[in-house]
Sequence to fold (151 residues):
Amino acid sequence: MYGTARGEWRTTPRRAAVLEALRDRDDFVSAQSLHAALAADGTAVGLTTVYRTLRLLEAAGRVDVVRDSGGERFYRTRPDDGHRHYLVCRVCGLSLAVDSGEVEEWVARIARDVGFRAVHHTVELTGVCDGCRPGAGASTNRLMTGRCTDA
Fold:
């Protein structure tokens, strides 16, 4: 897959298990939740290996990352055609990919205008989904638990 120099991806059975478990998820997942899912399936992978693997996948551009209000990172496999931007519910963690063509054009224009190259960007879009509006009853943060109480 990638070279074996320090900090680069090298396929190992444990890393492959982490990647496969991540691919099996539909939504963003924390490293701790992914580790718990692996353990529940009987896969012996240490939490440090999960964190390290997710960081390597991030550096390789193979996962998208969002943060919750406390700064914890949540991961999701990246589609083959590039990164996505997501609108994430601050209450339940529901994440929806959004059309971000205008954002991508804006980033390219800004970079070009100021003479930068190889610009990376992060855009965090959060809100409250219809199911979590006040009075809707959902209160469990799906980013923390992997599920929503009203689903």
The first helix runs from residue 13 to 23. The chain has five helices and six strands. The two ends are 37 Å apart (CA to CA).
